[in-house]
Amino acid sequence: MKQTVDFLKMKRNQEMITMVTAYDAPTAKIVEDAAIDLILVGDSLGMVVHGHQGTQPVTLDDMLLHTKAVARGAKQTFIVGDLPFMTYHRSIEDTVTNATTLVQTGGAHAVKLEGCTGLILDSIERLTSGGIAVMGHLGLTPQSSTVLGGFKVQGRGEQERTKLIEDAKRIEASGAFALVVECIPESLTKELKDILAIPVIGIGAGKADGQVLVFHDLVGLTTGYIPKFAKTYANVHDVMLQAVEQYRDDVKRELFPDERYTFKDVKKERSTSV
Ligand SMILES: Nc1nc(=O)c2c([nH]1)NC[C@@H]1CN(c3ccc(C(=O)N[C@@H](CCC(=O)O)C(=O)O)cc3)CN21
Ligand SMILES: CC(C)C(=O)C(=O)O
Ligand SMILES: [Mg+2]
Fold first, then answer.
1. pTM of the full structure
2. N or C terminus: fewer CB in 10 A for the chain?
3. Angle 186-195/158-173 helices, nearest 10 degrees?
4. Residue nearest to ligand 1 atom 8, measured at CA
């Protein structure tokens, strides 16, 4: 399994870092078999698999359940778990407790948190000093979408740009091993990756030290809105739809189950394992 130092080395060697989300064991196994460098158990699962309109309804228990499933499905891949809405804004002690749960009980190797308040910077220091690796997340931070005014491109004005660069430096100084930047102009991403020693992983941020994409967007399984920056590499939705339609037709026409899928009174040797 790759470690945080390997991601630093990859940046230095200009080898692109790949990250994909997974929310359950079978999708985690696909991501691992595809030799993706890191798996993100993103709180986007609230939208992608639970049908919420944002990530705010996602709880630590939700993240824990999904992280456990992902850890069982991908035993050789570095797993990052999102700390969900408001689980790292009360106190350092509370943040440490919640991050420890995701790592110790959930099986994550690192946690990701959004934003850059004083409390967050102190928490990054405390977590890393205790042995929990932390990934930062700046730009469009979906947990704050209500305050930001929606899912909008960030860091376009000169002031916003300067603030984002200062925040990124502070996150690195606090001990984070990588930084996700979401929905920012590519020129800002380029500046960030040149300034920082830690890898900058982009989503809707142009070329960076690495990229992250939501699994369901990538394979064409997302129902509803897909962000403009997400490239769809397959149409798994249609493959699944055709399979279920075929099954329905077979049952209606009494073609399924046939001999091959039916038990008889006397056990018969069969060549298939079904
Ligand atoms: N399916 C899915 N994919 C994601 O990448 C994703 C989620 N869900 N949920 C959690 C966050 C939210 N994300 C989003 C969601 C929407 C936009 C979006 O609508 N962006 C506009 C740009 C708006 C502008 O121009 O300012 C777009 O048209 O893509 C962006 C990021 C990224 N994450
Ligand atoms: C979009 C990525 C970076 C994320 O935070 C998530 O999937 O929750
Ligand atoms: Mg997230």
1. 0.96
2. C
3. 30
4. 44
